[in-house]
Amino acid sequence: MSRSSARIGTLALALALTAPLAACSQQLKAETEYVEGTDFSQYQTYRWITDDLVLIQSGDGNENIRNVENEKRIRAAVERELEAKGLKKATGEDAHLLVAFTVGTQVRYKIQGGGATGLDLVAGGPAKVTRGRLTLYLFDQASKTQIWSAWTQDDLEPGSDPDAVVNSAVSVLMNEFPPG
Question: What are the φ and ψ backbone dihedral angles of 76, each rounded to 5 degrees?
Fold first, then answer.
């Protein structure tokens, strides 16, 4: 094998190994809403809107998603991201921002195939997929108004590392804060 063939083989292998990672990072996108004209630099501290574990106390849902472990994962990831942006955790009225989040799921069916209509079903019917959605909210403590929110959603693959899923989603959302 020539040296150039070996380089091409190595390059092809590297691309094959990194392409799935690139595809994953491109899939997750954040959408945001915020109050125009807000001076986000004024916010130096934050606290959770409640210390209660809200995922397991409100609503029904997928028990693999709505559980204490995921609540703790999400809170820890949000706190890491806020602190990396220079915000400090505070208590009571000392906090400038109140932080909240919601998690939702939706069962979808993937229809695979081609054909003229694009609706040809593969043998065995459509694949059932759970789509997860994470939304973060920031409220101004003094005015008690929401000033920023961001959300993302993705299909949740069975066997995925929950820490990686949560960290990726929170990172994508917090990349949009502060806006501008």
Answer: -65, -40
What strands, in cross-sheet order, belong to the sheet with 45-48?
A: 31-34, 145-156, 127-140, 97-110, 45-48, 88-89
Sign of CA dihedral 87, 88, 91, 94: negative
- pTM of the predicted model, to two decimals? 0.74
Secondary structure class of 30 (helix, strand, coil): coil
Q: Which helix (H) or strand (E) holds 143?
A: none
Q: What string of pLDDT tens digits covers the 180 residues of the chain?
A: 544 444 333 333 333 333 334 344 447 999 999 999 999 999 999 999 998 877 555 555 566 666 788 889 999 999 999 999 999 999 999 999 999 998 887 887 777 655 555 444 445 566 788 888 999 999 999 999 999 999 999 988 888 899 999 999 999 999 999 998
CA 143 to chain centre: 27
Crossing angle (nearest 10°) for helices 162-174 and 68-84: 40
CATH architecture of residue range(s) 29-174: 2-Layer Sandwich (3.30)
167 vs 134: CA distance, rounded Å? 11
